[in-house]
Amino acid sequence: MRYFLRRLGHATLLLFGVSVLTFLFSALAPGSYFDEMQLNPQISRESVAALRAEYQLDRPLPVRYARWVNSLLHGEMGFSFAYNAPVATLLWARAKNTLLLTVIATLLAWAIALPLGIWSAASARRWPDRAVSGLTAALLILPDLVLALGLLILAVRSGWFPTGGMVSLGFEKLSLLQKFRDVAAHMALPVAALVLSSLPVLVRHVRSAIAEVLGAPFLRAAEGHGIPRRRLLYRYALRAAANPLISLFGFSVGALLSGSLVVEVVMSWPGMGPLLLEAILARDVYVVIGGVLLSTFFLVGGNFLADLLLYWADPRIRAEATSR
Amino acid sequence: MSAKAENQPLLRVENIEKRYVRGSLQGSQGEVAALCGVSFSVSPRTTLAIVGESGSGKSTLALCIACLEPPSSGKIWFERRDITSLEERELRMIRPQIQLVFQDPANSLNPRWSVLEIVSEPFILQRRCDRRERQERALALLERVGIPGEKAHQRPDEFSGGQRQRIAIARALALDPKLLILDEALSALDCSVQAQIINLLLELQSSLALTYLLITHDVAVAGHLADQIAVLNGGRLVEIGEAGTVLRAPKHAVTQQLMAAATGSKTSPGVALEV
Amino acid sequence: MRPPGVSQSAADPRAPSTAPLSHLDATLIKNRGGLQLSFCVVALALLHGVIACAGFFAPYSPETQDRDSAYLPPPRLHLVDAQGHLRLRPFFYGYQARGDSFGEWQEDRTKPVSLQFFTSGPRYHLFGLVPCRVHLFGAESGRIYLLGSDAFGRDQLSRILYGGQISLLAGLLGASLTLLVGACVGTTAGYYGGWRDAVLMRLAELFAVLPWLYLLLGLRAFLPLAVSPLEAFLLVILVIGAVGWARPARLVRGMVLSARERDFVRAARGFGASDGYLLRRHILPATSNVLLTQAAILVPQFVLAEMTLSFLGLGVPEPVPSWGNLLANLQQYSVLASYWWMYLPALAIVPFFLGYLGLASALQERDNPYKIPEVSLGRPE
Fold first, then answer.
1. Where does chain A hold its CATH 1.10.3720.10 domain(s)?
2. Model ipTM?
């Protein structure tokens, strides 16, 4: 329990620090949302000034930060100028879509990477290993932007997958099953892009973690006992290699988040990515801050989850935590 | 005057204490006392061996005397000057006179430098001479310890352990020190190589009028080199006396154990327990 | 408390690069190690050389427009002409509009145009200094769009080559900035310890925990948007450089901590060495390996970062070409559907990734010859 609380406290402090940092950065911004308005001759100077005062943009930084924290505690996270709505509502609507994408991509990527990596490690230096390595190398040299665009072009020219958005026209009229299939069809491309771009690194990490464990004496002993190979690999080796892999899992969440931004923009998936981009171009500062913070929150959350998994999986950490 | 100077100890250590804070993620779990009230003195041109098991605080003592770690309390007198209270600037003058030879030459010689550069380094730091003179002096030092000049441009990993330790000794001698602290300097060497180095050290001591502070866990080695032996246990000095006496008739229980262990274990061929 | 191992290296910012290609080596090259290192260095030098001499390799200037030749596909090169004769020089057919639909082209077999090598073409400055007119190849008459043309009739190949200068330079400078900052922070934290260490490492943790692309965009967001290409370029470098310093800092700190405890450092202090001397002569040289490996890892990532920024419209703006903004118009469906050659700039980075990845893996093997090479994560968090 104390371990849990400690990690939680650490995560909260981290998020707090990040929020301060982001706010400090935002102070660098020379322009503001209302500069565009000022150029418009139809809107009088006074109205712009009044708007600025209303949105508190002319107050000093610490005051703005305090008000923002206040709004955060009220579940609003500041106000969006462009959409004229609280940031939290905007973000949450989009964040759901991003989460959908990221979670599914993470699960899929790991579901593929684990068996592939284990197989590769188990047949070290023989043809399966080389084949897998060749594949991962080929994927590694294709960065996510290139991959996403390439997939998109393939899709457009082949017409196999819908190429934009999350739902088709007339979505509301579909039955539940059809809705499910529709979203899945739209999700295929972005998920594929995310999975393919994160796969090589995951596979290599799994391979190296398992390969290290495979040389261990205890495994040889188990083998000598006649334990079947599959069980050896999955129940013994994987367990022993769990530590670095769980840490990797924590990181892969963050990596996928960053990757998802590009993929969402390229594939027009209505997630946080396109929203953030719009907000940047429009100088909608609280949306930007909110977006950055939320993504950090997810990343920290992923790491926190990894910490919990580690605690559950590794008795050494449990022992160390309880001995304190 | 010279008779009086002879009687003055070169080094006098008074009540040295060194405490380390043992920290952890939870905060300090308390302090560890590496040295507790250690006092002794060393006369010029003699050898004092400090014997003890690992963890008895020997290396800490060496670092304190070499002014590389400040003691938590206590004083160190070198030639009647209290070096524990000196500023870095003044200490810089004293440093050349107290030199340290470390245990593992793989660690104490920069693996990327050539041997010549390593031995020339003290001259560069003390800015005493120009390039050519530096090189000459460095080569002379290497010759002195038995490393031929042709090899001076090689890296440490191209030499054997014994040769590397010789190089370390050469470097320590560069600034004409009065006191040489040998911190387990022989422990990483084979027995036969140890014998060679011991002979080198003895020869250097007489020709260069050096004073040695030998720190070791090996009683046999101590017996070979030391005029006086002090025994350290758990950060405390438990016995000190003339070498022969301590070896033959140890008073403290710890010393007795050490002696018993030493004579019981295989002694190196050719290095008998001399006095 | 994070267990050791992967977590350290996995925190690599943006590394599609870092995974050592130990098996790719096995398939590509029999001898690993030194051979791979030399091979990669040579390959990268050649690639960079081509980009640096973009003026020579590119047939035209990247800005020259020809609105009548918008969206021309890459020509097919032939050696045998319509009469069945073998020609000495490869040639292609000019285009004519097909029917009256706009943007549809077909080969005009009546107008073969030969390629010419080492022709005289538009003036350019080699390395920005020496004025030259010689180009590697050109068309006998008219223009050859070897990789097609874009909406304004500009030659894609030329734009890719010149764009490479911008993107690569941004990556190299950004990586240098990051390594400089990382090395300074890591050295200060590792050597002096104490409160400096605590503060700097907490700061590094904050930067490391932000998803890198969000941090990149966030930073870019808060800087002026409508700026000249040069200012934009410098801003991009600044922003990229400010994002990835946390990991090199941690690595350097580790190296400095271990170097600080080495006995030869103690010995030097025993001779009266100052902090500056120790850092300069003993400690920093020990970090050079790590920094070099990090450079090999970071450069391609930062080139990609520039590409991403420019693609999103936050980097180098038109008309200056960069690999990123060459891809920007792929966001339009019509372009995506009809003009496949507009995707080609995306592939320009692939050989560089290959070279840098190979280099990084060779360097990592050189650093840890006996360990299984650590693999880093594809993206920074």
1. 95-323
2. 0.83
